[in-house]
């Protein structure tokens, strides 16, 4: 074979690399870092030194365990929110589902009379059920009462967070503690850890494997099952799902339970890991829900892409503290980078412009409330349909 001949495998590899380099996500990330460098240079800081500090801190031998630990809630919430987002449904109640899952797991861990190993399993299941049921309530409010999912999920988050805060501060408060936190879980009621020589000195919880497994299951279901077909059809639009025979209310309920259940699992993992207790604000103050939502948007809710995007944001979060210590550049710059990357991606792909994938899912259905029945974000109007036939009246023999 001559040296100038390109094999099919090499051609496919080159094509993959070319598509990856020219993808909207790659362009958005690079543009975000370029703009960040301009901002840093304008303040007199060294952009290269700042970026080097970010990645050396987050991915170095001392910081990698911290990054993996931080990636558990970020990636977990990203995948949780990507599940309904793949169908064009927006779940903004992640905080409530997260803390209710943590509360349920904490109560089981503190008061279960079962052996430690069974208590851990029961605590994880309790977190899934608590978060899933709370998210399912938002779906019921949409399908039964016409309250847009985006609104119902967001509003349900506030009472959940307030309830958990009240219980921690007044009913579960550790005696003599000046910090709003519960007592520690019994020594055996904890998730095992590895990389215990990390920066925090506590290691990485095996909960990271549970989160990764959840993402892989989501990827398999989305690509290989009939449920995934319904998910994709609903994401394309109401007409597609109607003529494909998708029961939208039922699908919405299932997706929201899965989304909330995974968020609750993330909360349970957090309680069963360091510091092994319920602490008021520990899961809401860092903004895991909103960082996860940004990661899901960055990956267009792609299951595997969401995992990668979530880990990337965990790198920025952990690396930001190292950047601040080594270069005196405020770690808030990493938050600016996250926002700028999403803005560039929105401009590049038209997520919030004409032809955006999130916008296309909306159609005006007969009897749908203003803005649609699935909670499209404000500013994303439904596509006008002047003579859309009743989906139930579709010809039985046609496709």
UniProtKB/TrEMBL annotation:
Domain of life of the source: Bacteria
Species of provenance: Yinghuangia soli
Keyword check for Transferase: no
Keyword Metal-binding: no
Primary location: membrane
Membrane spanning residue stretches: 21-41, 71-89, 96-114, 120-140, 147-168, 200-223, 255-276, 288-321, 333-353
Entry membrane topology: Multi-pass membrane protein
Region annotation (Disordered) ranges: 361-399
Alphabetical list of Pfam families matching this protein: BPD_transp_2
Keywords: Cell membrane, Membrane, Transmembrane, Transmembrane helix
Protein name: ABC transporter permease
GO terms of molecular function: transmembrane transporter activity
GO cellular component: plasma membrane
CDD domains, sorted: TM_PBP1_transp_TpRbsC_like
Subcellular location(s) per record: Cell membrane
